[in-house]
Amino acid sequence: MVWRLAAASIAVGLGVMALKFLAWWVTGSVALYSDALESIVNVVAAVAALWAVTVSYRPADDDHQHGHHKAEYFSAVLEGVLIVMAALLILFEVWRKWTAPAPLEEPWLGLGINAVAGAINAAWASVLIRRGRQARSPALVADGHHIMTDVVTSVGVIAGLVAAVFTGISVLDPLLAGLVAINILYQGYKVITGSLSGLMDVAVDPHEHMRIRDIISQHSAGALEVHDLKTRIAGRATFIEFHMVVDAKMTVGESHVICDRIEDALQAVISNVRVIIHVEPDDEAKLPHGTSAVPFA
Fold it and tell me: Please, where in the chain does CATH 3.30.70.1350 lie?
């Protein structure tokens, strides 16, 4: 499903890009030019997302023994860089148009074409964000948020150009394009910083951390204590590791049964989870015992 969505995003991006460049060609508006230029970034980002998703689904091998999940973060970082580059190109065009403002040609036809492109983008961005979250795909979610930013941009551009047509103030066109560029720069910053967090092995959020603690506590009967719980996210995969204290007289087989029970419980509620449990004897405990539930240190 994820691969098909990434491939479809390229086709949608090409169609929307063609419509937006047509709107710019009809009107000569620098604001519509900025909107069209961002569509090029959408297409390039969709290609990068397809590559990243394809790589991330490859099985683990000798060189990448934990899998290829992080490939999607590289795609998201590339998308953020492209967004920033598009914003700088727009600012260059804004300066050129600001020094020589001109009235728009065929504004209503161009705005109508751009509105159709924006509607297509809005529908597709919603699909990418929803399906990307379900599949835990950072590349698809980043692509969806970027396209949704494009939708917001299109709405602002259309509203501003309608005002420019009615007022006859030509300078509104490059002014709008400048605001678009600033917004794009901000979105690029968010995409890059979010992706870098993933590359730096960010932990699960506090709510998910507490859910993991609860699952371990509920299914670790026979153990004395659990401590040093650590998590990290790598694309679709969640890595969980912790130390489990058992009676020093417990056999390896008995402790293994507890580990299997905990792993099965975590896999039942968390997709693509990888669990590492370090079993320790009771002299490694950090808390006094005697409670019926397995405590966390």
Answer: 206-284
Q: Are 266 and 215 in contact (CB under 8 A)?
A: yes
Which architecture does CATH list for 2-199? Up-down Bundle (1.20)
Do 151 and 118 touch, CB atoms closer than 8 A?
yes
- Distance in angstroms (rounded) separating the CA atoms of residues 49 and 252: 45
Amino acid at 283: D
The 3-state DSSP class for residue 277 equals strand
pTM beyond 0.90, yes or no: no
Dump pLDDT digits (tens) for 147-183.
887 787 777 778 777 877 777 777 777 777 777 778 7
Q: Compute the distance between CA of residue 11 and CA of residue 52 in angstroms, rounded to an integer.
A: 17
What are the C-alpha distances in Å from 81 to residues 188, 218, 266? 7, 45, 36
Q: Which three-class secondary structure string do you get for 182-202?
A: HHHHHHHHHHHHHHHHHHCCC
Look at the alpha carbons of 23, 25, 28, 33 in this order and tell me if their dihedral is positive or negative.
positive
Residue in 151, 155, 154, 133 with CA at minimum distance from that of residue 142: 133
CATH 3.40.50.2300 assigned to domain 206-284? The reply is no
User: Tokens in use for 187?
Assistant: 């979105």
